[in-house]
Design a protein that fits this description.
Blueprint: H1 14-17, E1 28-30, E2 36-37, E3 50-52, H2 53-65, E4 71-76, H3 81-98, H4 104-111, E5 128-134, H5 151-154, H6 167-180, E6 186-187, E7 194-196, H7 200-206
Parallel strand pairs: 2-4
Antiparallel strand pairs: 1-3, 4-5, 5-7, 6-7
Length: 218
C-alpha cells in the first residue's frame, strides 16, 4: 500500500475533527452557467454541480487568474451524506480486502487518504470541489493522473507533490495552485484535484479558529 509522506496531515487527524463549525449560512449555488462543468459524476438531482456561494465566488476569481488557454473544469462539488458514507465505506472495505492485516483503525486512516470520513467531509458541506484544467475546447490537460485515481491505482501519483510525474503534469498542477491559492482555497495534498474553502480542513491549514461551513442538505 502506498504510504503518504510523514508531514501530510490527513483529514482523519483528530485535530481536524476538533475544529468547531460556526456556520455562516451561505446557500448552495449551481455552478452550471458560471463555470465549466463536467458530467462524469452527474447525479439525477444535480447535487454534484452545487457549491457554497462563497466558494463558487472564489472559484470565479481563480478562473480569472489562469493564463490564456486554461479553464477550470468542475467535476464534483456537493455530496449528500449518504453518498459520502458509501464512498468511504466502499474504499475502506477495498483496502481491508487487499490488506487483511490492517486493524479497523488503520483502515480508517488509510481510507482517509482518498475519501474523507463522513463526520468531517468537506464535500457534504458544499465546501470542497474536485476539478481539473482544460483548454477552451474542453480537452483536459495532463495532470499526471485522472481525477479520482486513488493511491493504489496511481502508485501515489495522485499526491499533489508526487515526484514521479511528467514535467508537463507538474507544471499544470502549479498553474492550478497559482490560481486557487490566492483565491483562498487549500488543497488536500493526497489529491491534486481536491480543493476546499470554509471546511474544517481548510480552517486547520489556514490557521482559522473555526470552519464556516458544516454539513448541509440540497
Amino acid at each position: 500500500m502506498w504510504q503518504p509522506p510523514s508531514d501530510i496531515v490527513l483529514i482523519s487527524d483528530p485535530r481536524v475533527a476538533a475544529i468547531p463549525v460556526r456556520e455562516n449560512h451561505d446557500p448552495l449555488a449551481d455552478v452550471r452557467g458560471r463555470l465549466r462543468v463536467d458530467g462524469r459524476l452527474a447525479d439525477e438531482e444535480g447535487a454534484y454541480a452545487h457549491l457554497r456561494s462563497g466558494l463558487l465566488a472564489r472559484l470565479e476569481r481563480a478562473a480569472r487568474l489562469l493564463p490564456d488557454g486554461y479553464q477550470l473544469l468542475i467535476v464534483e462539488g456537493y455530496r449528500p451524506v449518504s453518498t459520502q458514507r458509501r464512498y468511504f465505506e466502499e474504499y475502506r472495505d477495498q483496502l481491508l480486502a487487499a490488506s487483511p492485516e490492517l486493524t479497523p483503525d488503520e483502515a480508517h486512516v488509510a481510507a482517509s487518504r482518498y475519501v474523507s470520513p463522513v463526520e468531517v467531509a468537506p464535500h457534504t458541506a458544499g465546501a470542497a470541489v474536485d476539478l481539473t484544467l482544460c483548454a477552451p475546447d474542453g480537452t483536459e490537460y495532463d495532470m499526471g493522473t485522472q481525477v479520482n485515481d486513488n493511491p493504489e491505482e496511481s502508485d501515489g501519483a495522485c499526491y499533489t507533490a508526487a515526484p514521479h510525474i511528467s514535467e508537463d503534469a507538474r507544471a499544470h498542477r502549479k498553474i492550478l495552485a497559482a490560481a486557487l491559492e490566492p483565491a483562498g482555497l487549500v488543497n488536500y495534498p493526497t489529491e491534486w484535484w481536491h480543493w476546499s474553502y470554509g471546511d474544517r480542513y481548510w480552517a486547520l491549514v489556514s490557521g482559522e479558529p473555526a470552519a464556516c461551513y458544516g454539513p448541509v442538505r440540497i
